[in-house]
């Protein structure tokens, strides 16, 4: 696996790349992409980092796994490529934005536009085998992405962490809540949203309010 990651992250992550677990992970990913159809495409595995440079990180959204259907995953959590039907969780995200900020529901589910504004859209596991959800979990990705969350917590100030659902909320232990803002809610998946744990969380307006308090530019959601 070629670690095609933006230079701004390298001083903080170079040590991770040299660790035994990362070498094992690299060997596993190379084998998987050689022998199976995997997502996202190889050159998009580190897309979250390449669109959101370290110095620009203002908001962190934590997902679990990439989408495992053809043409969906593009290396950003919850995001799909242009022209791809919106998965249920993304539909509920856009509905909440529509209700919260009166922004019209968008045609494209490609969230690159968020990442380019300083939103790190980080899946805990960065790859997956086609049609096999969770197939690349517990191979080392979670160690790596936990290290990413911790380094942001340690080396930055006033980042807004959006923790949606039980899995994301487990990451709270990696974040210094005296330096950063943590907003928690249910997951946007239909199961959680339909039980009343997602809609009305107003995370998008709250995020922009917090950014403005620090004289930072609001995110155009």
**Helical element count?**
9
Sequence of strands across the biggest β-sheet: 3-2-5-6
Estimate percent helicity: 25-40%
DSSP strand (E) fraction?
A: 5-15%
Tell me how many strands there are. 6
Distance between the termini: 32 Å
SSE order: HHEHEHHEEHEHEHH
Largest sheet: 4 strands, parallel
What structural class results from the helix and strand content? alpha/beta
Estimate the global geometry from the Cα principal axes: globular
Query: Which regions are unreliable across 5 or more consecutive residues at pLDDT < 50?
Result: none
Q: What is the mean predicted local confidence, pLDDT? A: 97
Nearest-angstrom radius of gyration? 17 Å
Structure characterization notes:
This protein has 221 residues and is an alpha/beta fold. It has 9 helices and 6 strands. Strand 5, helix 7 and strand 6 form a beta-alpha-beta unit. The chain is globular and about 45 Å long. The two termini are 32 Å apart.
Secondary structure blueprint with pairings:
Elements: H1 10-17, H2 20-35, E1 38-39, H3 47-51, E2 59-63, H4 88-101, H5 112-115, E3 119-123, E4 128-129, H6 141-155, E5 160-164, H7 165-169, E6 181-185, H8 190-193, H9 203-213
Parallel strand pairs: 2-3, 2-5, 5-6
Antiparallel strand pairs: 1-4
């Amino acid at each position: 696996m070629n670690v095609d990651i933006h230079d701004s992250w390298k001083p903080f992550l170079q040590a991770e790349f040299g660790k035994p677990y990362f070498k094992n992970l690299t060997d596993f990913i190379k084998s998987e992409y050689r022998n199976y159809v995997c997502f996202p495409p190889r050159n998009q595995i580190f897309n979250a980092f390449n669109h959101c440079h370290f110095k620009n990180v203002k908001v962190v959204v934590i997902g679990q796994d990439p989408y495992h259907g053809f043409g969906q995953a593009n290396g950003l959590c919850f995001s799909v490529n242009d022209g791809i039907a919106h998965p249920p969780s993304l539909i509920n995200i856009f509905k909440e934005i529509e209700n919260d900020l009166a922004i019209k529901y968008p045609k494209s589910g490609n969230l690159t536009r968020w990442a380019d504004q300083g939103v790190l859209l980080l899946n805990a596991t960065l790859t997956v085998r086609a049609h096999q959800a969770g197939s690349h979990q517990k191979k080392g990705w979670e160690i790596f992405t936990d290290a990413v969350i911790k380094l942001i917590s340690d080396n930055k100030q006033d980042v807004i962490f959006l923790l949606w659902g039980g899995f994301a909320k487990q990451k709270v232990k990696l974040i210094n809540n005296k330096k950063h803002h943590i907003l928690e809610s249910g997951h946007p998946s239909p199961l959680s949203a339909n039980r009343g744990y997602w809609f009305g969380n107003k995370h998008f307006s709250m995020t922009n309010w917090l950014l403005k308090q620090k004289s930072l530019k609001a995110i155009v959601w």
